[in-house]
Amino acid sequence: MDYNKEIDYSSLKTFIDCRRKFFYQYILHLRSESPSIHLIFGSAWHYGLEVVYNIMKEDPKALKLAIDCREISTKAFTNYWKVEGEEHFGHLDTYPKNPGNASNMYNSYWNKFFIMDRSMTVFGVEMPFTLLLKSGVSYIGRMDLVMKEFDKIFVIDHKTSSIISKITASEYEASLQTKGYLTAIQAHVDTLPRIIYRTARCQKGSTETEQFEVFINKAMNERFLQDVNWWSEQVKNEVAAYNAYMLDYHATGKPVDFRSYFPAFHGSYSASCTAFFSLCPYYDICAEANNPLHYAEHAPTGYKFEEWNPADHEAKITKKLKEIT
Ligand code: SF4
User: Fold this and answer.
1) Integer Cα distance of 52 and 109 in angstroms
2) Is 233 a member of any domain?
3) Which of 9, 92, 129, 299 has the greatest CB tally within 10 Å of its CB?
4) Range of the domain at 17
């Protein structure tokens, strides 16, 4: 991604959390060699819902019962799991993150929402959006689902979670994702949309889905635009500082001294290193070298270079899914 032209929610969120983490992940493209069951399970869960909502969008009367939706979602989930998860996790006891429990979760989800969703119109599934900022950078993203009921627009975002805490609703309200979605919709329609987070519990004892509705007002949208514009300028500044350093670095022709000063993408430390009770994926290598370019030529043990491109990834998965269905 050219960060002088565009930025998406994930990379901006990472930049705000820690600029050094952003550098490792989005500039050096260093990633863990171990696949994440949380990411794969979450993607498969989204795919199972996406398939059903696409059917509803094509033909609102095609699906008559919640159980039909559960069957279709479960089948789609299982296919996704076969191509992405089974190879890595098939031999492990991954309960509750496995296709059997996903079926329980779809059962809860569709029993709760099928009737409600049938009374609305599916407007978009995996709907892309672009917000052009004053900095000249486009803030881009995709919304899981956009539904309409008369003149009201609802953005629906799907999550899976092991806990619903007392601050879950506030977390959604405060999130960059919420403000980005709602500001993007409001830029195109003359109404204040709402966002609904549907959070499916993935626990051994519970597979219920909770729904949280979040509103933001026009003033908050305006402030979001000002803030995200400022942040996009900070990203551009860091990229410029890095490019200037690289020009000097290439001119010397010397290998990087891992203890030397790196004048861009400084670390945030403290909370960002240990967020959500787990270590930052770059914790060890970040502690080891002052200058992250130390890892630019050879990925350290346990990491690989892989540029994350959602469009390429989606094309690869679609091809594999076609092969098995
Ligand atoms: S360990 Fe901390 S400072 Fe280093 S990249 Fe991760 S979050 Fe940033």
Assistant:
1) 12
2) no
3) 129
4) 6-225
What whole-number distance in Å separates Cα of residue 85 and Cα of residue 76?
13
Tens digits of residue pLDDT in 27-42: 999 999 998 999 999 9
Residues with CB under 6 A from ligand 1: 18, 20-21, 267-269, 272-273, 280, 282-283, 286
pLDDT one-digit tens code per residue, 184-229:
888 877 777 889 999 999 988 899 999 999 888 888 888 999 999 9
Q: How many domains does the chain have?
A: 1
Task: Give 119's DSSP letter.
Answer: T
Query: How do beta strands 194-201 and 30-32 pair?
Result: unpaired
Q: Which of 13, 16, 20 to mutate to test the pocket of ligand 1 (most atoms within 8 A of CB)?
A: 20
Closest CA to 234 of 4, 2, 10, 1: 4
Q: What is the pTM of this model?
A: 0.92
CA 18 to centroid of ligand 1, rounded, Å: 6
- The tens digit of pLDDT for each residue in 39-84 reads 999 999 999 999 999 999 999 999 999 999 999 999 999 999 999 9
Q: What are phi and psi of 158, to 5 degrees?
A: -100, 135
Q: Give the closest residue (by CA) to ligand 1 atom 4.
A: 286
- Probe target for ligand 1 pocket from 274, 280, 288, 303, with the most ligand atoms within 8 Å of CB: 280
Residue 182 lies in a domain: yes
Strand boundaries in 162-236, DSSP class E: 194-201, 209-214
How far does residue 268's CA lie from ligand 1's centre (Å)?
6
